[in-house]
Amino acid sequence: MGHRQVVVIAGGERAPGPTPALTSEAVVIAADSGVDYAHAIGLRVDVAIGDFDSVSPQGLARAEVQGARIERHPEAKDKTDLELALDEAMRLDAGDVVVLGIGGGRLDHLLANLLLMASPKYARCRLTALDGPMRVHVVHAGRPPTELPGEAGELLTLLPVGGAASGITTEGLRYPLRGEPLPPGTTRGVSNVVAVPPASVQLEAGTLLAVFPGQGDANA
To answer: Which domains does the chain have, with CATH numbers?
Structure first.
């Protein structure tokens, strides 16, 4: 597990929501128009990365004047700007990574970004995504219980990605799992509810996305 706190700002649309609390040593990495997003929420960019086909010229110039390192990549490339930014976070020994703006208003971007975050190559850090009221935590096997901060009555969905997840044990949820599996394509983990916060989850094999959709208790 790395040590640095890193905020990665994707080039998606800015949705109203909380800005993460940063330590004095936190690093802000902006992917393309994530530079403009960072400036809009009052964050100073340390690294700007991407092909820069959507960032404003003024935003990129401001980041450079303020001391950001600029990493330019060709438009024709095999990785998205967000993947480049997450790879840079790993290079900087990230321990906790918060990603802002993963949706961008496109379903394909949202799905690709969530699957990217669940990649094994990022398993050595704690990854969380914030997009408006939505919060997504990536939970890998073989770790101590992952705390899932949420309020009592808040919806929480557990989704297996990359194959089956097994040996899942939860605490603080209305519908607990006790060493049970969630196979690919199951809906069993959808619309659980936080009963006693903070909830937590641990698993023996596989990877889960723990999704707070940003709604209160509701029927599935």
So the answer is: 4-132 (3.40.50.10240), 139-212 (2.60.120.320)
